[in-house]
Amino acid sequence: MSSIRTLGAATAVLLLASACSGAGGGGGGENSVNVLMVNNPQMQDLQKLTADNFTKETGIKVNFTVLPENDVRDKISQDFSSQAGQYDVATISNYETPMYAKNGWLAPMDDFVAKDSAFDQADILEPIKQSLTAADGKVYAQPFYGESSFLMYRKDIFEAKGVTLPEKPTWQQVAEAAAKVATPEVRGICLRGQPGWGQVMAPLTTVVNTFGGTWFTKDWQAQVNAPEFKEATKFYVDLVRNHGENGAPQAGFAECLNNMTQGKVAMWYDATVAAGLLEADDSPIKGKLGFTQAPVVKTDSSGWLYTWAFGIQKASKKQDNAWKFVSWASGKGYEELVGKNLGWSKLPDGKRSSTYQRPEYKQSSGSFSAMAEAAIKSAKPLNPGVQERPAPGIQFVGIPEFTDLGTQVSQQISSAIAGATSVDDALNNGQGLAEKVAAKYKGQ
């Protein structure tokens, strides 16, 4: 859903730390820990900093196995579901964490946190902490970095057209602005249209939420072709067809990033992490951007919530070492280390309140850091819409079946964006798929 995850998933190279004892990740001696990790840039930074800092301070050797996103998800699922104990720590998200905890695959962290006052659990942003807490009230993962979603726009283009946006616009105001600022050379807005539960369905589901829709009611009634879901989807499809980027049915995060950077679109609704890329020193539009909260209709907020976090396998025989690594990687001291050694713009942010109080970080992040912090703080993973939900999640439904359901429905939506099918037909097909999923849960 974010740039880091999307670009990381495209890299098909297996990276192993110099300290790694082998591709299997097992062994390593008693004073060691085996970590299975996604190959995103921030994690690669972590890998580079570990031996000279964490290992030097603790004597604990870290054996990394680092893989592209799709590969690492499969390998984590295999190892943790079998409780093989080959890996002590793995990168998981707020999508997997509650499900893994329910299945008994993760070690709860509450006792470790209670004994580790320096970690400062209270500093973790509440929505992030909540999203990594299972139904039993225990915390099962600690965040490495987090994100929400917001609207990014070209201030210079808006000023030239005499168009303004409030800090918390409605989707209707965004659509009106897209129509007013668009020119033959610059499209009004970029919205993901590429198939995938983490592509088009991520932003679209936030629109569904704020329009009053939901995938399922609290008692597992499928709502994919309900009036609110249909209204939101028609709005989204019409907006991207009328004023969106060229090639929208194939456009994901990376394509919208390129469109925005190259000045081909005037607005973009997507992950907060995108702001750092658009405001980077080498960005041609650095300093030309404005930011607003995620657009709303019937809800107070609508931004999504995502975090890459570290979980400890329940079968691990090195849980104490595993916690020391997690505490270090997710702690304030690690952020300080990154800032001083790699630059404050490379901070794995989006997880701690204290991050947004650091003068060095505030200076490097420009005008968007406060808006990103507000977006994450206002995210409501347990209550993202106007009605109660049967499972947690904002841009996804926190059940194993959603990866397949969301992907299949997304293919229908992308087809509607391409003009190959109608929204009504797309959602009627999606309703049938959702009803099959709901039947598994009714009466539980």
UniProtKB/TrEMBL annotation:
InterPro entries: Bact_solute-bd_prot1, SBP. Keywords: Signal. Residues 1-23 form the signal peptide. Pfam families: SBP_bac_1 (PF01547). SUPFAM superfamilies: Periplasmic binding protein-like II. PROSITE patterns: PROKAR_LIPOPROTEIN (PS51257). Transmembrane segments: none annotated. This is Sugar ABC transporter substrate-binding protein. It comes from Lentzea cavernae.
